[in-house]
Design goal:
With about 325 residues, the protein is α/β, with parallel strands linked by helices. The protein has helices at about 15-25, 55-70, 85-95, 105-110, 165-170, 170-185, 200-205, 220, 230-235, 265-275, 280-295, 300-315; strands spanning about 5, 25-30, 45, 75-80, 100-105, 120-125, 140, 160, 190, 210, 240-245, 260. It is built from twelve helices and twelve strands. The strands form two sheets. Strands 3-2-1-4-5-6-7 form a seven-stranded parallel sheet, with helices on both faces. A five-stranded parallel sheet has the order 9-8-10-11-12, with helices on both faces.
Length: about 325
């Protein structure tokens, strides 16, 4: 039986991949060496110190990571590789382990995680824009756990925006559209939720009807027009997700029922107004979103695609 160790737990995605792999009959574990404020599930903790004064303590921690890795067949790093990542080098060079590196976003776009490309056996990107930096990578979309359906048609429509970074989500533009709609007396409740743990984030999504994810103009910000994990989790619960998805990335998401909005206030207002005033349409689109996530982002499906990559580098 193939044994896989995921190192780091970016946005909880490695945990979900490991769940899918275990459902397929493989042994898959997640090791965290970076502390996350969101407390995603994982199997091992071995947190490194950031300060240089802890050099000796960090060396022992790195050796512990290497010792854990010795019990696995494939080592799957997440969020790229920094040139200082000594554990990666020792696992690859000393243990001769097959290593996969999974790139998730800004560590790639900002060039902080692109070291040692020639030592990596296979590369995976979580969003299609990252192929511009790593053209020899496989694009594998993020998996989403099955989440409970919830949609209360009797409630005043609840619109949720939950940015981890306001600049990257276009929060200023979104708030401007919301404030103008309030002045126009559109009946809805708006929730801006920030700095909450993962369970609370899911609870907030479960209560919403419409979730606004990312609305940025890539021509002005150099931030790609893509939807994130929040959109997928919202659709998995039967919510309408509103987001700006660039034309160049549409082909990577066939049948995706996300509400694709232009990155301007007028179009965002128009889309919000339509779904607030037509709750039957909102409910129906939410169900389509749930079906889409189950079809294309099922953890077992995604895990199987990654297992096929492992098999290629093992033979």
């Amino acid at each position: 039986m193939l044994k896989i160790l995921h190192i780091e737990n970016t946005a909880g995605v490695p945990h979900v991949i490991s769940v899918g792999m275990r459902e397929l009959g493989y042994e898959a574990k997640v090791l965290e060496t970076w502390i996350s404020k969101f407390s995603f599930p994982h199997d091992y903790e071995n947190y490194y110190f950031v300060s240089k004064i802890h050099y000796i303590q960090n060396l022992w921690k790195i050796l512990r990571t290497i010792n854990i890795a010795s019990n696995f067949d494939i080592i799957h790093f997440h969020a790229g590789i920094n040139w200082k990542r000594l554990d990666f080098l020792l696992i690859k060079i000393m243990q001769h382990k097959p290593v996969v590196v999974h790139y998730h976003g800004f560590e790639t776009r900002e060039g902080r995680g692109l070291a040692y490309q020639n030592l990596i056996d296979a590369k995976i990107v979580a969003t299609p824009d990252l192929l511009k930096w790593i053209p020899d990578a496989y694009f594998i979309p993020n998996p989403i756990m099955q989440l409970p359906y919830s949609f209360d048609s009797e409630k005043t429509p609840i619109i949720l925006h939950m940015p981890t970074n306001r600049k990257f989500k276009g929060t200023d533009l979104i708030l401007k559209a919301i404030n103008e709609l309030k002045k126009e007396n559109l009946a809805f409740e708006f929730r801006l939720v920030e700095n909450v743990d993962y369970n609370e984030a899911l609870r907030q999504i479960s209560e919403a009807h419409i979730v606004i994810d990312q609305v940025v103009d890539e021509r002005e910000t150099n931030i790609p027009g893509l939807f994130g994990k929040t959109s997928l989790e919202a659709m998995a619960m039967g919510k309408v997700s509103i987001c700006h998805l660039s034309d160049e990335y549409l082909r990577y998401y066939p049948e995706c029922p996300i509400v694709n909005v232009k990155p301007n206030v007028d179009d965002l207002k128009s889309k919000i107004r339509y779904y607030v005033e037509n709750m039957d349409e909102t409910k129906a689109l939410g169900i389509k979103g749930r079906e889409y996530v189950n079809k294309y982002h099922n953890p077992k499906l995604i895990a199987n695609r990654i297992i096929e990559i492992y098999k290629k580098i093992l033979h």
